[in-house]
Amino acid sequence: MSMNTQGRPTSAGDTSVSYTPKTFTGNRALDMEEPLIFEFGHFDTTGVDFDMPDAFEMELGGHERKAALELPGLAEPEAMRHYVRLSRNNYAIDAGLYPLGSCTMKHNPRLNEKMARLPGFGDIHPLQPLSTVKGAVELIDTLAHWLMTMTGTTAVAMSPKAGAHGEQCGMMAIKAAHKAAGRDPKIVLVPESAHGTNPATAALLGYKVVSIDAKDEDGTVDLEALKRKIAEHEGDIAAIMLTNPNTCGLFEREIIEIADAIHKANAYFYCDGANYNAIVGKARPGDLGVDAMHINLHKTFSTPHGGGGPGSGPVVLSERLAPFAPLPFIRKGEDGPVLVETPEALEAGEQPFGRMTAFHGQMGMYVRALSYMLSHGSDGLRQASEDAVLNANYVRVGLQDLMSLPFGERPCMHEVLFDDTFLKDTGVTTLDFAKAMIDEGYHPMTMYFPLVVHGAMLIEPTESESRASLDLFVATLRDLVMSARNGETDRFSGAPYFSPRRRLDETSAARKPVLKWEAPAPAEAAE
Ligand SMILES: *Cc1c(COP(=O)(O)O)cnc(C)c1O
């Protein structure tokens, strides 16, 4: 081998050798096999080094923990490595395009992060005296103002911590409004295409869910079917829960007629606002007859989705529902915004149904969302919606000759829905197709949802993808479709081949989740 004068080889070596080594550690270069923290942390180790406190008297009235805490201890560098290694196995919007339909996985601008870390926002505590957090209260109030302005509504409950939590909040306000009017309706109408959280929310609050059929030709609500259901259950309907644009990525064009029919039946219109990203600055839900709508700040307003949290799901409310908004809320006082936290502080006409959270909601998300809004301005927000719709249609047009559109080649809103007709007779399933995308370095699209379409594949690229990024994505899917058509089933049936874990038993994971780590039983005596 030729060397330079320092003894360093001047060529790369023979990379043509084909050999898959088994490593001693189980790691594959940067792809690390990381055990659970419980498996290698030691209960007797700790990363902190405090002196033992002087003798003191417990004030827990004998309720103090008797057994050891049994949290795995690690030194700081070990803890750091553990989580960094785990994070390398995670797909993230910062790693690549994340086309998960209905989830609006858009870029989280770094400016938002910077604002959220300002000490006056990042280092405050909800139990601090109000006089020391006036700016934070004002920020919540400013965000509330813009959410109401954008949606054309009268009030907003800021505290819910996710979309589903917002649904619960909005439906509790609706329940309280019925109760205040001396009514006790038992039914909530939910269209077939609804997100699972909608019927779950209604059921959680004790309502009976009645499903509304979708029109075969486009998956939107069948207005006549809705009217029939209303007539059938006259006087017993509390609300309809509807998403617009719906989960097929299509705008419910008869939304005004739907709202009118619901209001005539003395019921309320709950709109699932998870898809608000498609219409910000274009249409105001309040003008469409919406009485309550949660806004997923972690979708539309670019705050991070976290690992299941923290989200933030403020709920805007129409004039009719405004009095029932939960505590705490901000009232305009003579000396600026006043935080109303307790029933004693209420004024005439304020009838909150209760409280959703211990404190005021997700402060960090409020800062990020407001930072996003103010840095875009009204024209920028409108353009973001337009670009989200444009990008989804760009993907649709790039794929519609090879993949199948269940409702024809009509324009979509911010997400495009394909079905599995194009995979027929290829021996490749929707699931296989999605797994092969993982090998290509993409998070799969939303699959098998909405339920109104067989083998659904819902793609939402969002506005923050560049044209080059969309082109590569479209080209990748085209390559996968051609491969399926050409009978290259191996590429799919065993996929993913390159991920840290291969196919998991997703059914067992969902049905029998193991949520708690148990120490392994002592090894059986060898036979
Ligand atoms: C994301 C989503 C929800 C739930 O929001 P979470 O913040 O995840 O609780 C509800 N409905 C639709 C249509 C969604 O996309």
UniProtKB/TrEMBL annotation:
GO terms for molecular function: glycine dehydrogenase (decarboxylating) activity. Residues 384-481 form the Glycine dehydrogenase C-terminal domain. It comes from Roseibium aestuarii. The keyword Membrane does not apply. It holds the Pfam family GcvP2_C. Its EC number is 1.4.4.2. It catalyses: N(6)-[(R)-lipoyl]-L-lysyl-[glycine-cleavage complex H protein] + glycine + H(+) = N(6)-[(R)-S(8)-aminomethyldihydrolipoyl]-L-lysyl-[glycine-cleavage complex H protein] + CO2. The glycine cleavage system catalyzes the degradation of glycine. The P protein binds the alpha-amino group of glycine through its pyridoxal phosphate cofactor; CO(2) is released and the remaining methylamine moiety is then transferred to the lipoamide cofactor of the H protein. InterPro entries: Aminotrans_V_dom (IPR000192), GDC-P_C (IPR049316), GDC_P (IPR020581), PyrdxlP-dep_Trfase (IPR015424), PyrdxlP-dep_Trfase_major (IPR015421), PyrdxlP-dep_Trfase_small (IPR015422). SUPFAM superfamilies: PLP-dependent transferases. Keywords: Oxidoreductase, Pyridoxal phosphate. The keyword Electron transport does not apply. NCBIfam families: PRK04366.1. Residues 168-306 form the Aminotransferase class V domain. This is glycine dehydrogenase (aminomethyl-transferring).
